[in-house]
Specification:
It contains three helices and 34 strands. The protein is an alpha+beta fold and 619 residues long. Among the domains are: 18-28 and 43-91 and 197-220, Jelly Rolls; 97-189; 289-375, Carboxypeptidase-like, regulatory domain (Immunoglobulin-like), CATH 2.60.40.1120; 515-611, Immunoglobulin-like. A hairpin with a 5-residue loop joins strand 32 (580-581) and strand 33. Helix 2 (97-132) runs antiparallel to helix 3.
Amino acid sequence: MRILPVVLSLLFFNTSFSQLKKINAETTIRNVTIFSSGARVERSASVTLQNGRTEISFTGLSNQLDQQTIQLKAEANIILLSVQSAKDYMSARKIETEEKNLIELTNTYKDKLDLDSRLLDVYKNEESMLIKNQAIGGQSGIKASELKESLDLQRQRMTEVYGKELEIQKRLLTDRQNFEKSKLQLQEISRKKDSVSYIVTALVESKESGNVDFQLFYNIKDAGWFPTYDIRVTEVSGPLNVLMNANVFQRSGETWKNVSLFLSTGNPKDNATPSQIQPWLLGFYDPSISIRGQGPQGSVTGRVTDSKGQPVAGATLNVKGGKTGTLTDANGFFKLNNISATGTLVVSSVGFESKELMFQPGYITIEMTESSTALNDVVVTGYSTDSGFPGAAAGVSVRRAEKMKSIQTVSIITQFQPTTMVYKIEEKYTLETDGKMSTIGMKQFEVPAIYDYTSTPKIDPAAFLTARIVNWQDYNLQSGEVSLYFEGTYLGKTYIDLGSIADTLLLSLGKDNGIIVSRKLVKEYSSKKFMGSSRTESREYEITVRNSKHVPVNITVLDQFPVSTTKEIDVDDLKAPDAQIDKETGIASWNMGLSPGQEKKLKISYTVKYPRERKVVLE
């Protein structure tokens, strides 16, 4: 009788287990929210449930799925008992016909390459044997007729062998070219992370039977977006024409077909914990450990791209001979601070040739060249297992300088959330899982701007146009790269860093050849005088500014007086009519307006007195 409870328990367990129903749910991607790094996918499925417990399997999910972010929702009278996720090694992605044919073609080229290589070895061995067999007849020699017959036979066979070797070598060259082309094309159309997808299994208990609509949410890693801008100026009396673009990419292993896109300015990878301030330990200044001889310090921001304009993520930038360095982010952007004006930047990345360039303050774009040896390291398989950074995949792109002036933009709705901004794109989009960059024209608008010119003819006799935008916050802009066009001419790139600007946004629009500036030394007023133990030098310069444009302009011209750092050097007789002078820096500035065709002349002069036996450089 003691065994009966155990038997009853087993019967109850088996009965309960047999009542567990299993269902494979087919899901459809409805919405995708793309962050600056990563994305959130929303799938939906309709499942018919019976009363009791059911195990539901959601299969074919992204191989980049972040298991910690899985959420399952359903508006029904059910209880969610558990949710589990695991890799589905029994499933493999479907190979399209084009890709399958290309795999077969690549393998065919590979077989031909191997066969011809082996055949060439055969003829090389025969050539070697024929050469060794030239010493025939041994020590006793042979008859002249036999020798002639042997030489004729050897000559004939050697000629045939050399001909075959040349034929095979030409064929090998063609085989290698075809093999490399098909291999690269295979990589281009099969950019999947791997063939293994995720499966999410949910155990639910339903109180009633019927159809239940499920929503499955999860984050994936290999995706992102970043904004770029095209800014055009037709004339300095008109507004800025701004086109805001969204550059979107994904390599999640799943195709987002005809889905609604939301572009969020947030990043799930950002640290959500506030920083804690640490004790500030103050000590005496020790000049022996200060950095000397490096010259003025500056900062540089920019972007690293490949030859097709695609971002290179994870590229390393170091200051040559120093310890300063950084990595590019997922979109290829970087920033380096406190770099010597004479420093050299060294840029390197896997698969690219290293590059060195002199430090240039401001914003720069660095184009990397693919390494010629990188192709030899690629293994041909049916599935690409590239584990590069987001956005690093090469794709077809059009350079900003070649873009059409008129671009159709999509309809968007801007949603403001507590910590982020979300752009909802009303049109449906399809994004393949190939890592290629898709550019979406988000919005085009005009921005009133105040245009000013600045010129420092002592350093560069050119006038630089600057646009000042007041209340830029009203336009919901984001930090991003800017391509500049002025009067139909492509000027280059700059960067809008909205995290470090004030109420007024300044955009440098480059040089304007319509403003002519020159600076020359007025010789009759420049002299050297020797009096006793002192030497006095006088300098006077004339600056000419001419507006050759058909519209009036405002311009600020900058020059400077020398500033003495010792009592032995006396700077006196400072003259700069109509200029504002900063006594601490010695900078003189003229702010003026010029009508079309108007020319103005400015003058600046000074004298410097110093000991006769010493030398002072005034040029």
